[in-house]
Each structure stands twice: as structure tokens, then as C-alpha cells.
Amino acid sequence: MSRLVLRTGLDILDISRLEQLDPKIRERFLKRVFTPGELIQAADSNSTLSGYFCVKEAVAKALGQGIGDIHWQDVETVTDPLGAPSIVLHGRAVELANELSLSTWAVSISHTRQMAAASVTALGMVDR
Fold first, then answer.
1. Which of 32, 43, 75, 112 is the S-S candidate for 56 at Cβ 3.0 to 4.6 Å?
2. What is the pLDDT of residues 3-46, one digit of tens each?
3. Total structural domains in the chain?
4. Residue 116: CB partners within 8 Å, gap ≥ 6?
5. Nearest in space to 55 (alpha carbons), one of 40, 70, 43
6. What is the value of pTM for the model shown?
7. Cα dist. 95→18, 72, 125 in Å?
8. Residue 107: helix, strand or coil by DSSP?
9. Which sign, positive or negative, has the C-alpha torsion 79, 10, 72, 44?
């Protein structure tokens, strides 16, 4: 018999936190946190980057971890041609998802002028 595994994560961020980054550290911070693909997709949009940041935090929460247990770039947001986001896991995030039997992920990102938020849901099946 199998049982359904369902995990969720949610995060919200004030976009001004990215806007107010000291220009001296901004580039280094962005390269540490975001994958090259995310940086290209975001085209230096603070609201988009804030949404991607929230996805990373929300995935970590769904995995029952914090950032540090997984690396920032272990969670990548990719978009389809219409802009719909999805999640690609790398490194330790893949290992944790496999340990938790999580195989299907859904993500939603939302913005206002001031705030960005992301919600993720992960599903899987475990044999009892």
C-alpha cells in the first residue's frame, strides 16, 4: 500500500531589500544566490529576483531545511516561453527530495510593487 506525501513552503520578501543592496556587494551576492539561468531570465529586475529568492526559501521550507543545509543554487526557478515558473532541484536539494519521496513540484510567484511571495507544493508517494 502507498501513501501520499504532501509538503508545502511559503515565503515573502520586501523587494526593497534587493533594491537597497550596496552596489559594492550586489554583483557578488547575486552570483552567489542565483544561477546563471535565473540571472539571465530576471534581466536585473528586482521584483523577479525577489520572487526567485522566495522560491528558494519556500522550497527549503518544504524540504524541512533552511538555506545552509541546502545551497542557494540548489534550487533554480526556470520559466516556460509564456513565463510560467517551475522548479529544478540540484545537489543536496535533490537528495533531500528523494529522501522524502518528493517527485512533483508546483510553484506560484506573486508580486506587488513592494512585496514578492512564492508558494511551493511538493507531492510524492511512499510505499508503506
1. 75
2. 999 999 999 999 999 999 999 999 999 999 999 999 999 999 99
3. 1
4. 12, 13, 15, 47, 50, 51, 53, 54, 109, 110
5. 70
6. 0.94
7. 30, 15, 16
8. strand
9. positive
